[in-house]
Every structure is written in C-alpha cells, then in structure tokens.
Amino acid sequence: MSPQVANPSHDELQWFLDDMTVVKGASPHTVSNYRRDLKRFIEVIAPVKVLDASRENVEAFVKVLADGEDGGSGLAPSSIARALSAVRSFYKWAIKEQLIAANPAADVQAPHRPDSLPKALTVHQVAALLDAAGKGDGPRALRDQALLELLYGTGARVSEAISLAVDDLDLDKGDDADAVSVVRLWGKGRKERLVPLGGYAVSAVEAYLVRGRPALAQKGPGTSALFLNLRGRALSRQSAWEIIQNAAVAAGITQDISPHTLRHSFATHLLEGGASVREVQELLGHASVSTTQIYTKMSPTLLTEVFRSTHPRA
C-alpha cells in the first residue's frame, strides 16, 4: 500500500496516473485522456479539494459538461460518460489507497447515451480502399497497403497496429499445411491476444517487410516497430489517420472514415458471414460481449434471415 498523503497539496492526480501507467499498464493515450478529464473536474469543483468532493460536486461537474461553458455547446453523452468514468476510477483508487472512505461519484449517472451504430464500409468499399492504398510499389505504398490490410484483416485498434513490433508477427511460410499466420496484439491494459492473418494481409505484410520496411528503416536510428514513417521511426496515430484518409479520397469514398472504421467493418462483415458474437468478441479483444453486441444492430436483414433459417416456428 502506498503511503498516506500528509500534505493536502500533494499531487494525488499524478500519483493516480503513475499508478495507471506502472501498475495497470495503461497506454499513454488512455492516461492522457484521464489526465485531461480529471484536470477539468478539478477546475470545475474548485476551490473544493479533489479528496473533499461530494456527490453534489460530481453532479455539478456532469451538468457543466452537459450544458457547456461560456456559451459553448455541451459535450456528447458518450464524452460525458467517459469523463465521469475517469472521475469514478480516480475515487476507486483513492479508496484503495485509504485516502477517502466513500466514492462520491459511485451513484452519479451520466446523461442517457443513445445506442449509436458503428459506421462500417461495404465489402466493395473496403476493396476499393485497399486497392487505392496499394497503388505503386515504393516503400510508402507497400507500408500503406500492409497497414490497411492488417487493420481490416485483424480488426486491430489503430493504437494496437502502430505499436506492433516485427517480432509480434508469426507468418506461415507454407511448410505446414495446418499452420496459420498470426499477429500478437496488445490491447487495453496490455492484454495480449493472438489474431489470425488472412492471405491478403499476409501477402501485403510480407511485401512490405521485404521491399518496403528495409528502405524506410535505413533512414532512422533503428527500431523494432513494424510500421515506420518516412524518417525510419515508428508510425504515429496521426500518420495512420492520414494514410486512411488519403486512401479514401483516392478510392472516391465520401463518407467520414477513420482507422476505427476498418475495425467496425471487420466486425460487421464477420457477423454477416456467419461468425458468432462471442467469436467476434475474442477477435476484437472486447472485455464484455455487450460491447460487441452493438454490431448485431447493424444488419436487421441478416438477423431476420438467421431467425427464419434457424427457428423451428419461423
């Protein structure tokens, strides 16, 4: 157990964030989001100290987020729920560290969050996107195609894809008829999962490893990262975003898409192909099957067909 805070000015927030990083293995992106939400909470409830906050303070914070500040518009219910989750997690940690006795955010509810359907591309749109990314045979084109094929072929989060090391790949060389190519993905909380790689993704990644990555790597200081930028360093989230945006423009896709769109498309197309929600949950690395079930709302026609073909009284 960590020592008691003797000085009220002690930075409990930083202590909590350090614990998230070191003990729980949270990603820098997650820690950054928690820091932003908690700093805003501390600013809103001031001059009340964070360890002295009451349920009323937390409710006031939620109201500020919903109503907006200085004439601005309020946050979306999903953003408010995320901020409230950060506050609730902080106080759970404070209880564990015996800094407080009760969680003032425990029973505070965020505004109702309507079910939102993930945006998915059609199979034809995905094919057009991947074809557009693969135009050319230079290192950059090979990298872009390998990245997008891997994102769609595994359902990986963009953070998981860009943090891959070369050693996280196990590509089948064809010697064993039963062998499959897999990639080791590190999800939230550094939870590991193995996901199979299909033939298209394997071909794109192998081409990049042989003819693309070496040319990029020689421009940098040396790194084990799989995906490299033009300076030979690990690819960033922003660069991955730009790659898919550029491919979408080249493919003539006008709807708003992001790297996460390929994850949504991966899940939707698996379900439409007959995979179960439980199987898709494992591939996506969702902690709860309820998170995966939202994808079943994407295709009412599919569900109707399943019902008619499987229920004895349909």
Summarize the model shown:
With 314 residues, the chain is mainly alpha-helical. It contains 13 helices and three strands, in the order αααααααβββαααααα.
Overview of the molecule:
The protein is mostly helical. The chain has 2 domains: 12-96, DNA polymerase, domain 1, CATH 1.10.150; 123-306, hpI Integrase, Chain A (Orthogonal Bundle). Helix content is 53%, strand content 4%. The protein contains 13 helices and 3 strands. The chain has helices at 12-22, 28-45, 55-67, 77-96, 123-133, 139-154, 158-162, 199-217, 237-251, 259-272, 277-284, 289-292, 300-310, and strands at 169-170, 182-186, 192-196. It has a 3-stranded antiparallel beta sheet with strand order 1-2-3, with no helix packed on it. Helix 2 crosses helix 4, helix 5 (123-133) runs antiparallel to helix 6 and helix 5 crosses helix 9. The longest helix is centred in the N-terminal third of the chain and has 20 residues, at 77-96.
